[in-house]
Amino acid sequence: MPNMRMDKNPMPVQDPEVRIHNVDEVATGYTAEMAIDEAKRCLSCKHKPCVAGCPVNIHIPEFIARVAEGDFEGAYEIISLTSSLPAICGRVCPQESQCEARCVRGIKGEPVSIGRLERFVADYMREKGETPAVKAEPNGHKVAVVGAGPAGLTAAGDLAKLGYEVTVFEALHTPGGVLMYGIPEFRLPKAIVAHEIDKLKDLGVEFVTNFVVGRASTIDEMMDDGYEAVFVGSGAGLPNFMNLPGEALNGVYSANEFLTRYNLMKAYDENSSTPIQHPTKTVVVGGGNVAMDAARCARRLGSEVHVVYRRSLEELPARKEEVEHAMEEGIIFDLLNNPVAVLGDENGHIKAVECIKMELGEPDESGRRRPVPVEGSNFIIDADCMIMAIGTSPNPLIRQTTPGLDVNRRGCLIVDENEMTTKDGVYAGGDAVTGAATVISAMGAGKKAAAAMHEYLSSKE
Amino acid sequence: MFEITEKRILNPTVEEITVYAPNAAAKAKAGQFIILRTDEDGERIPFTIASADPEKGTVSVIYQIVGAGTRKLSALKQGDSLHDFAGPLGKPSEIEGENVVIIGGGVGCAIAWPTAKAFKQAGKNVTSIVGFRNKDLVILEDEFKDTSDAFYLMSDDGSAGQKGLVTAKLEELIQNGQKIDRVIAIGPLIMMKFVCELTKKYNIPTIVSMNPIMIDGTGMCGGCRLVVDGKMQFACVDGPDFDGHKVDFDAAMKRNRQYLDFEKHKYEEACNLLNKEVDA
Ligand SMILES: Cc1cc2nc3c(=O)[nH]c(=O)nc-3n(C[C@H](O)[C@H](O)[C@H](O)COP(=O)(O)OP(=O)(O)OC[C@H]3O[C@@H](n4cnc5c(N)ncnc54)[C@H](O)[C@@H]3O)c2cc1C
Ligand SMILES: Cc1cc2nc3c(=O)[nH]c(=O)nc-3n(C[C@H](O)[C@H](O)[C@H](O)COP(=O)(O)OP(=O)(O)OC[C@H]3O[C@@H](n4cnc5c(N)ncnc54)[C@H](O)[C@@H]3O)c2cc1C
Ligand code: SF4
Ligand code: SF4
Ligand code: FES
Ligand SMILES: [Mg+2]
């Protein structure tokens, strides 16, 4: 008999007053009892609408049925058929617009908490100590992966399991991509990412860090060196700015810089040698996950934080849970506002942001109502820090150094339905192809590309 | 890990290390840089490639000890290893112009010298003007002499070479009618600014090497942004070389002082820590 309670089992969280003084994970995770109880809310629908909402089509009712029986290992096996990073996706997927958006339990009441169950299962297995992966029989072929974000890591894992000798080339000193330098510890503990990377090493994947493809070696040179196919998962790391007057002032950061200092370079730790400003009042511009993360990091550095976003609450693109957590942490949302200038003091440091009020006009091509400035409504917010979180684009280095690699108008690599680029033997996926998107879609693209690369290399023999 | 295969003390605050880093050595060109970290929690420190030996797989950098990061680096000896060494990064310098004047100021000479060498190797006529505060700070004098057709050493107090600023020597050469197709200026921002003001007057194309505060060095953080010709540029990927007549130096100078208080504090901490280690 299913559990017909209307709402999800709530996620245990750290108290907001406490957590703004630490970087420990905000959501602490279900216990086994909570997970089993929540799993029993699933109706095992025959037509499985939830599965179609998941970009990698995890066999959702099947794994949840195992959880309901207390067979967590069995649940993990089912998830692993289609997903490589469940501990991560269970934490960071925008479930409310994906799997859970389609769940029939959500019609009246709340959907089944698919993401939390996925996270529980993955955490359970990690804590229990999975049996180490066994290296596949080598098939004698060498492939390269550019970028160690979720797309690259997934492609590397799948290729290694097929027996390929895989080398991942990563520009930074640590693999993980946005999972390491962008998404903060309190939302995705770095130990979990490191664990996934260790699993790949067990599979025989080789990591070369500090290696910027395009400078240290081009893709053509890598292919001359014997890599028979290359997967490009270089992400979309180039920060956009608004070209406002005063944007070059000190105290104005791109979200990437602020988050890199805070996360990757551990500036939250007093002993870290990486400087970061400890602002008193911060304006974060934008409304996505990146804006929420930057706002919450600034909050943890002791700042009052205002999120300035040009549309209204309904259009905020961030995960619902992050917005709720941000609000609980005392972050102030100044909606329907847009910055027009940054004002500085005599030392070249920001002292205020000039904004203009916006109203929603006719819908634009995205279907959302277009924000239009209200003439003459300019006003000033005092601030000693401003963080621009208005999107990123693919870094141009790879396309500039790889003849034959075509990109679209936005600088994204063009691929066919098999994730093959316009250059023979070169595949791509993740944010480098789609522009800034999600972890799960990057992971899905890595999986698809790995399968296509295997087919390509097998047919060449 | 990247082993320090050689270490050379150039003056009380300037040192050269040669590091085994075959990937970087294979591709390094004049004007490019590397980013290193001494240890697992270290800062990412950018340095210009002073020379590279693809055969031995080594890269040399010359650095001045200015703060906590460089002090920790200086505590390492030959045979020790660096935790990270990424490169080459940035665009190589354009080796253009038949008659060039290369101006180096202070530790900027460490960056200017490989450029002078590259021009010389390309068969160009190279005049070098290098300036230091006093004779104790002079570095790379012999190296510059080897790679220059004419060499002028300047010091603020006259204790080495001629007394005066590099800009005075440059103006003298211009007024004496020396043919100059291009000036390359590398040193403190204030020096580059004045060189550019001078060469603008005489309409001589001038390239400067910009060294703003960087973290990733791959175009991901935007921390190294500069205003060039009114537009935003990222020094780590669009540079570090730029048309000096288009750079907003005043904005750049303010940005370089961003973390001064923090850096001072960390420097004192590093001194205390390292002194303790020395005592023990
Ligand atoms: C702050 C922040 C929060 C986010 N929150 C969420 C969230 O809650 N949920 C969600 O689903 N998504 C979120 N996203 C988006 C998600 O992280 C990305 O869509 C995803 O990481 C893309 O994966 P990727 O593998 O394509 O690229 P990335 O994760 O960007 O990894 C690319 C890697 O390639 C490396 N690289 C780049 N160029 C080179 C080169 N030339 N040579 C070698 N290496 C190179 C980079 O250093 C990087 O490590 C967030 C993004 C950010 C920035
Ligand atoms: C492309 C590039 C090439 C460079 N080449 C050389 C070189 O060949 N030799 C040399 O001696 N120095 C070079 N520098 C400068 C060198 O990186 C800094 O002196 C060093 O980072 C100082 O670190 P610190 O912790 O010892 O000092 P700190 O006390 O932390 O800083 C002292 C000053 O150094 C600058 N600085 C600090 N951190 C950084 C950073 N992450 N990036 C850039 N500048 C910073 C700031 O102006 C700061 O006020 C270069 C910088 C760049 C960007
Ligand atoms: S991977 Fe994401 S979308 Fe798919 S089931 Fe899990 S939480 Fe839902
Ligand atoms: S739609 Fe909801 S209730 Fe139905 S199978 Fe999927 S998770 Fe279970
Ligand atoms: S150092 Fe980060 S973009 Fe240049
Ligand atoms: Mg420092």
From TrEMBL, chain A:
Residues 32-64 form the 4Fe-4S ferredoxin-type domain. One of its GO terms (molecular function) is oxidoreductase activity. This is Glutamate synthase (NADPH), homotetrameric. It comes from Ileibacterium valens.
From TrEMBL, chain B:
Residues 1-95 form the FAD-binding FR-type domain. Gene3D superfamilies: Nucleotide-binding domain of ferredoxin-NADP reductase (FNR) module, Translation factors. Keywords: 2Fe-2S, FAD, Flavoprotein, Iron, Iron-sulfur, Metal-binding. Binds 1 FAD per subunit. Binds 1 [2Fe-2S] cluster per subunit. GO terms for molecular function: 2 iron, 2 sulfur cluster binding; flavin adenine dinucleotide binding; metal ion binding; oxidoreductase activity. Its cofactor is FAD; [2Fe-2S] cluster. Signal peptide: none annotated. Pfam families: DHODB_Fe-S_bind. FAD binds at I62, Y63, Q64, G69, T70. It comes from the Bacteria. GO terms for biological process: pyrimidine nucleotide biosynthetic process. [2Fe-2S] cluster binds at C221, C224, C236. PANTHER family: DIHYDROOROTATE DEHYDROGENASE B (NAD(+)), ELECTRON TRANSFER SUBUNIT, DIHYDROOROTATE DEHYDROGENASE B (NAD(+)), ELECTRON TRANSFER SUBUNIT-RELATED. This is Ferredoxin-NADP reductase.
